[in-house]
Amino acid sequence: MSDATAVEIARSVNAGESSAAKRARAANDRIAERDGVIGAYLSVTSELARTHAARVDARIAAGERLPLAGVPLAIKDNMCVTGTRTTCASKILADWIAPYTATAVQRLLDAGAIPLGKTNLDEFAMGSSCENSALGKTANPWDLGRVPGGSSGGSVAAVAGGEATVSLGSDTGGSIREPAAFCGVVGFKPTYGRVSRYGLIAFASSLDQIGPIATTVADAALVYDVMAGHDPMDATSVDRPVELASPGLREDLRGVRIGIVREFALTELDPAVRAVYERAYADLEKLGAELVEVALPTAEYGIATYYLIAPAECSSNLARFDGMRYGLRVEGRDVGATYEATRAAGFGDEVKRRILIGTYALSSGYYDAYYVRAQKARTLIAGDFAKAFASCDAIACPAAATPAFAFAAKTDPVSMYLMDYYTIPMSLAGLPSLSVPCGYVTPAGGTSPMPLGLELSAPLFAERSLLGIAHAYERGTRHAEARSIPDLPRTAVAR
Amino acid sequence: MSATLDAAAAPIAIGGVAYEVVMGIECHVELKTETKMFCGCRNVFGAEPNTNVCPVCLGMPGALPVPNRLAIELLVKAGLAFGSEIPAYSKFDRKNYFYPDMPKDYQISQFDMPLTQGGVVPFWLPDGTHGSCRLTRIHLEEDTGKSSHASRDGRIAGSTHSLVDFNRAGVPLMECVSEPDIRSAPAAVAYLEALKRTFVALGVSDVKMEEGSLRCDVNLSLRPVGQEEYGTKTEIKNMNSFNSVRRAIESEMARQAEILENGGRIVQETRGWDEAAGTTHSMRSKEQAHDYRYFPDPDLTPIEFAPLDVTRLRESLVGLPQARIDRFVSDDKLSIAQAHQIVDTPGLADYYDAATALTEKPQATANFVLGDLSRLANETGVPAGESRLGVESLAEIVALVEAKTINSKTAKDLIARVWSDGGSPREIVAAEGLGQVSDSGAIDTLVAAVLAANEKSVADYRAGKTKVMGFLVGQVMKQSRGTANPTLAEERLRAALGDGAE
Questions:
Q1: Hey, are the CB atoms on A93 and B61 less than 8 Å from each other?
Q2: Most buried one in A191, A331, B7, B75, CB count within 10 A?
Q3: Helices (H) and strands (E) in chain B, counts
Q4: Residue B402 to residue B395: CA distance in whole angstroms
Q5: Domain residue spans in chain B?
Q6: A contact residues 362-391, partner B, Cβ 8 Å cutoff
Q7: Shortest CA gap B102–chain A (Å)
Q8: Beta bridge partners of A213
Q9: Quick one: average pLDDT of A427-434?
Q10: Residue of B39, B56, B98 best to disrupt the A interface, most CBs of A under 10 A
Q11: What was the pLDDT predicted at A491?
């Protein structure tokens, strides 16, 4: 399998120069060769990939032209695909076969994408390292001793490791952007409501959003253009026309104002990391952008706000995993005991922690003090962004404060929560936001350079403008092309 | 507004003190929509278990609810019919608790911003007094599945396992909460009947208690007349007909009165009605301290009503049953029972209204509509409006009777005939000579013939057995093929028998 982009693959398959079947076979071979060490996939759907590839080739032969013809796609395992094991990387759903397909996935499949398999994640998308998976361990392809980030760690590692051309992740507080930064790929979270959530197993309904992961901004835009738009099956999906992003990709930043957030002072970062971001801001300017300082005075309350709203919603969303209708069931002496035994055995520690926090925050007597106040804070944070965007077209900041860390490096939950410091405020405001590679640092104790990501965020529904800006930055800096992942060992990491 | 004047609310004497009963009623009514509240599954009763289900109403991982617009409109219409306020902004909340027949382990309901607020349900009591009950709110929620427990008595206790049918899960359900305005068992039934006939008329629900499309809980307490503070209440559940509601209330009133009489205290609890035993029994000794952790459902956007929508829905409300009942009672001078019966029979009020517009004789028309027409409708299974007896035909018959052109016997026969065969009653009467014979000469001829042929009866009559007069009148009627004016026939018979002077 060559490392062609989705744009190139679709062009060649549509032109009859290549075929979906060939692409599916090559992708499958690459997974067989590499996934033993990377561990991106929880299940590989070779048969499904073959069937879809045959169908795509038949459609192309019949004269159809498909935007994603033959593009190998990995799908985060919290999205339903009919007939596939859909686990959320949880013991409670370890053997659950989805009876229907998520709208976003269906749109990509209809557009010619080839479903390679389902990728690892932090259990129920709760985590920032992929270490909370109950079903598998995913390594960062840049350094197998380091985490890929999370929660969409598997989808990001699959693309970074060349095991998929594009993938789908879901982002609730940074679950696409932080791992994309850690693995040196493009990870894009669209505006809340822009992509249907139907078939995405909910973590926090008011924050969850599906987005593309790719090696280039153009590929991310291609996937976004296919899956964005209103879905009658999702009442929170927004019914307004989609402004296609691909035609808006630009080569320079003349006339663009980029906001630099006063409260996100780079001085707090490690000097080597800081240097990368200072250079990134300078590059934006060099490409023609005007840098303006903007204030987000309430952004520092993002994590506290997020860790009330998201657990509150998750405590309710995860109630249905009770052993009655599907998934794991551990018998107790009566219904109540069966609930307790099933959930005790089925959920991991982080999931239980968040269910407990959320149940507490919604309890009578605490609801106003916690949940209602968090919602008010959320409104204030969104208001800060609205004010900031009065003077700029996009905001630039680090996607994460550090490069990928080593496995088991973060033992207390709060230090893990802090990994999403730069991504959570945008999630709370529902904004489109992405991470694009912006350089490398070799961390202390590390053996090889690790990628860093620049986070770019834009006003609601300004996806076209945002992807255009990211494209200009990517083309002007070519960080992703500067380095490639080290050669992978032949021995498999422990799964 | 104070509690209603209710003549049926006779005070209960307890220890020499006059007590009154105070009741509020919560009704759950399944809405009559084609599809469920949040998915496209069919909303029908009685299908094979678990056949009308999909990922959404089964609470499958990743499935999302999308509100049924028609259900929202039906509920708003129901509220508007009772003068409820429709707030510009409403929302759905999640009510969190675990139960095996609730697929998501939360119910989508409405907590602090229901679709309607306030309103009044007016009703007539059988004794002719008028009553009313204020509504607190009507809100929209989804129904749960239905559990069947494998035990001898169908209860969960002692069952080896339970089965769940999710066909009902996600059916739109409206909950009507009343203020504690009800003061007697007949008022409670009259209130429920008023709700029912309005919901049926609006097409909001078919309101069948036996199929569970109406379920109600009664909150009941006693207090000394004149005392403002409420007594301790119990909640009564599991009534499956209006009659069992009445019986359950009477039984619970008696139970509470007896406790108070003996100096005891009422325990706040939920009590189940046992139809066979005719008593209530304790279901939950004390209201469990449920914390439902309500919060706005993040899967659903708030519901906003434009004033135009509400105006459109308000304008769609025509022929509301209560207004008709009031008109039948006040303007047409029908009895309350007659008015209820006409309104509660599908299509009959329209028929009655159209016929009365022609006859201008409401009572005579009502008598035919509720008598012969209802009987024929029952016998033939065809409602009056669909029979061949059009309102014009009925109006002709009423006019013929009023003009004494035909007698009531002929009227009855004509109605049955035209019901099935059609035709103009007036023309049939003319063509077949069915007009009532009120000519003394003609009647006298018949009388003479009858007397000549029934010598024994004549003798009996003269001997004081005056009861035979009925027989003799019948013979005259028979001779006339039913056309003789019976009053005149009797008068001429008496005259011929020599006591016409009476």
A1: yes
A2: B75
A3: 16, 17
A4: 10
A5: 21-307, 318-423, 440-497
A6: 362-364, 367, 371
A7: 9
A8: A167, A187
A9: 98
A10: B98
A11: 55
Q: How far apart are CA B449 and CA B16, in angstroms?
A: 73
pLDDT digit string, tens, across residues A235-257: 999 999 999 999 999 999 999 99
SS3 of B381, please? coil
User: Which position has the higher pLDDT, B9 or B192?
Assistant: B192
Average pLDDT over residues B396-402: 91
Mean pLDDT score of chain B: 91
Q: What is the pLDDT of residues A18-63, one digit of tens each?
A: 999 999 999 999 999 999 999 999 999 999 999 999 999 999 999 9
The per-residue pLDDT for range B147-159, each reduced to its tens digit, is 998 877 777 777 8
Contacts of B60 in chain A (CB under 8 A): 80, 98-100, 326
Whether residue B2 has pLDDT greater than 70: no
Q: Is A137 exposed, middle or buried (0-12, 13-18, 19+ CB in 10 A)?
A: middle
CATH architecture of B440-497: Orthogonal Bundle (1.10)
Q: In the predicted model, is pLDDT for residue A492 greater than 80?
A: no
List of residues 6+ apart from B149 with CB closer than 8 A? B155, B156, B159, B161, B162
For this structure, is A237 an active site residue? no
Q: pTM for the complete prediction?
A: 0.90
Long-range Cβ contact pairs of A347-351 (< 8 A, separation 24 or more): A347/A90, A347/A91, A347/A92, A347/A123, A347/A318, A347/A321, A348/A90, A348/A91, A348/A123, A348/A132, A348/A134, A350/A122, A350/A123, A350/A126, A350/A127, A350/A132, A350/A413, A351/A90, A351/A123, A351/A124, A351/A126, A351/A132, A351/A314, A351/A318
A325: closest chain B residue by CA: B103
The residue extents of the domains of chain A are 6-258+389-482
Q: Among A90, A128, A133, A151, which one carries the catalytic annotation?
A: A151
| Residue of chain A with shortest Cα separation from B158 | A334
Query: What would the two tokens of residue A361 be?
Result: 């925050």
Considering the candidates A18, A175, A427, A433, report the single residue annotated as catalytic.
A175
A151 annotated active-site? yes
Q: Which residues of B touch A236 (CB under 8 A)?
A: 64, 298-301
User: Looking at the complex, does the CB of residue B94 fall below 8 Å from at least one CB of chain A?
Assistant: yes
What is the dotted CATH code of the domain comprising A6-258+389-482? 3.90.1300.10
The candidate with the shortest Cα–Cα distance to B400, out of B375, B377, B373, B424, is B424
